[in-house]
């Protein structure tokens, strides 16, 4: 049951959010059955999709939760 | 119901004979409840197509009988069929017909589930003794078996039973044929479903799907208006056959008739030149000889027990609601990589089974008149003997009749009876 991959990448680009530390391209992607936010790490070459419920969760995330995620050893550079 | 159980003969022995079936099979609410348990909640039922949930976290609403279901694809790409009912107080969890979400949040009290059915969390969790206390215990109902063949997804409420491939049996080859019409070997169902509610028992629809006796009468108008060559396929002169594929599946095999003419795309009512892009992609993909054979023979006309009907260019899914009511969903077949033909497939499908489509309206009128009739007291039986004396066995051991014979119906009822008699 391999996923069917649609032939095209239907993304409506919003722009790039960038600082001296990171650079992320933001678009809304319409390949699936509903819109998703598409985030592309322009330095690390990785893409993540976030659906509406996940985004709402981010909006409500407490600052200390967010800071915990920023710890470089939290996910990306963990042993 | 007037039939009574006597001696060792089962209730269904009394109601189903080789060449006639009792009218109460279409009207009795008790029989309908038994069908749900023994057929719809036990065998494999078609629920959707992989191409309907192409991306991770895609989902679509679907159904088996009165059960409201969600077909989802999780983050890893695995398909799940979930019962659309909150484990808390039973509310409907998904409202939209389709969407993309990694989790579902119930509107009543906010319980949130992963798209594999697991309970992820619930608001104000101290009321349950904190986080992690009931997650393992309460989740969405999950259908224990989900499998697909040529992208067609089937699910079963029963955890044990024949595999999907065993269930499909000879009908699997017909799904292969459909996929083989695509230059990339993939048929897809991405055109969207139209829902049509019908005041008739689901079995009248199943019986009609491979009934080659009615088209000239019921569909005479559309054949006349469109100049379609389809009518002639269902006549005494036709070389087409009706085949009992076993397992309740049956088909109208129209290939002998199309081979006689040997014209590519005649089955679609067109010529190769008019779908040039498609035809050249087919020739490129399969080579001239094979591509030509496939384009001459065309698409299958097959009823896959109990609810999936493929009528060449359109797909139907039958959903029974009660003994007297069902919903027919229909959609156009789309052929992956096919170019110009896909738009035509959609417009032909709209013309025949769209909101103003003539085929669907014609057939529905017949189902509903039938349902009205079977509610009457006399005669009690419906006759399915047509062609029984000229039935033969083909080189593969399947029973076949001529284009207008009731061979498929007899196959359906034999299988139905075996399922209904099982404990
Ligand atoms: S019924 Fe779904 S959260 Fe209460
Ligand atoms: Fe018909």
UniProtKB/TrEMBL annotation, chain A:
Name assigned to this protein: Uncharacterized protein
Domain of life: Bacteria
Lineage of the species this protein comes from: Bacteria, Bacillati, Actinomycetota, Actinomycetes, Geodermatophilales
Automatic annotation (TrEMBL), chain B:
Keyword NAD in annotation: yes
Alphabetized UniProt keyword annotations: 2Fe-2S, Dioxygenase, Iron, Iron-sulfur, Metal-binding, NAD, Oxidoreductase
Domain Rieske: 44-127
Classification via PROSITE patterns: RIESKE (PS51296), RING_HYDROXYL_ALPHA (PS00570)
One Pfam assignment: Rieske
GO molecular function: 2 iron, 2 sulfur cluster binding; dioxygenase activity; iron ion binding; monooxygenase activity; oxidoreductase activity, acting on paired donors, with incorporation or reduction of molecular oxygen
Keyword Oxidoreductase on entry: yes
UniProt-listed SUPFAM superfamilies: Bet v1-like, ISP domain
Top-level taxonomic group: Bacteria
Stated family: Belongs to the bacterial ring-hydroxylating dioxygenase alpha subunit family.
UniProt name for this protein: Phenylpropionate dioxygenase-like ring-hydroxylating dioxygenase large terminal subunit
Organism placement in taxonomy: Bacteria, Bacillati, Actinomycetota, Actinomycetes, Geodermatophilales
């Amino acid at each position: 049951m391999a996923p069917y991959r649609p032939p095209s990448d239907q993304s409506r680009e919003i722009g790039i959010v960038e600082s001296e530390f990171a650079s992320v391209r933001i678009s809304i992607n319409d390949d699936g059955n509903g819109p998703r936010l598409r985030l592309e790490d322009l330095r690390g070459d990785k893409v993540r999709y976030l659906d509406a419920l996940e985004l709402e969760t981010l909006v409500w995330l407490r600052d200390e939760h967010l800071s915990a995620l920023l710890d470089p050893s939290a996910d990306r550079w963990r042993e | 119901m007037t039939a009574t159980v006597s001696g060792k003969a089962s209730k269904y022995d009394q109601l189903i004979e080789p060449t006639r079936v009792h009218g109460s099979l279409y009207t009795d609410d008790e029989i309908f409840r038994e069908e749900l348990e023994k057929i719809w909640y036990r065998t494999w039922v078609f629920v959707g197509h992989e191409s309907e949930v192409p991306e991770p976290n895609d989902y679509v609403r679907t159904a088996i009988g009165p059960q409201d279901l969600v077909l989802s694809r999780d983050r890893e790409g695995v398909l799940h069929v979930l019962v659309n009912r909150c484990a808390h107080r039973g509310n409907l969890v998904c409202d939209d017909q389709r969407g993309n979400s990694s989790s579902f949040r119930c509107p009543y009290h906010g319980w949130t589930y992963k798209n594999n059915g697991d309970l992820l969390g619930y608001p104000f969790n101290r009321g349950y003794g904190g986080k992690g206390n009931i997650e393992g215990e309460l989740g969405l109902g999950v259908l224990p078996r989900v499998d697909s063949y040529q992208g067609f997804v089937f699910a079963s409420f029963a955890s044990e039973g024949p595999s999907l491939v065993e269930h499909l049996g000879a009908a699997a080859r017909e799904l292969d044929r459909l996929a083989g019409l695509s230059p990339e070997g993939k048929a897809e169902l991405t055109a969207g479903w139209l829902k049509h509610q019908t005041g008739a028992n689901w079995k009248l629809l199943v019986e009609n799907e491979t009934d080659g006796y009615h088209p000239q009468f019921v569909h005479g108008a559309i054949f006349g208006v469109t100049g379609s060559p389809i009518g002639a396929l269902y006549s005494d002169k036709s070389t087409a056959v009706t085949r009992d594929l076993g397992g309740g599946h049956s088909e109208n095999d129209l290939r002998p008739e199309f081979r006689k003419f040997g014209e590519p795309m005649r089955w679609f009512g067109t010529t190769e030149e008019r779908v040039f892009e498609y035809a050249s992609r087919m020739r490129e993909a399969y080579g001239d000889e094979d591509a030509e054979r496939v384009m001459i023979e065309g698409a299958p006309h097959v009823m896959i027990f109990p609810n999936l009907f493929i009528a060449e260019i359109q797909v139907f899914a039958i959903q029974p609601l009660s003994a007297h009511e069902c919903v027919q969903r229909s959609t156009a077949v789309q052929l992956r990589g096919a170019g110009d033909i896909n738009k035509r497939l959609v417009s032909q499908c709209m013309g025949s089974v769209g909101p103003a489509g003539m085929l669907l309206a014609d057939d529905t009128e017949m189902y509903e008149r039938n349902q009205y009739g079977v509610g009457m007291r006399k005669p009690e039986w419906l006759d399915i003997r047509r062609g029984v004396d000229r039935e033969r066995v083909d080189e593969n051991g399947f029973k076949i009749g001529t284009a207008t014979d009731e061979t498929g119906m007899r196959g359906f009822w034999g299988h139905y009876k075996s399922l209904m008699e099982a404990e």
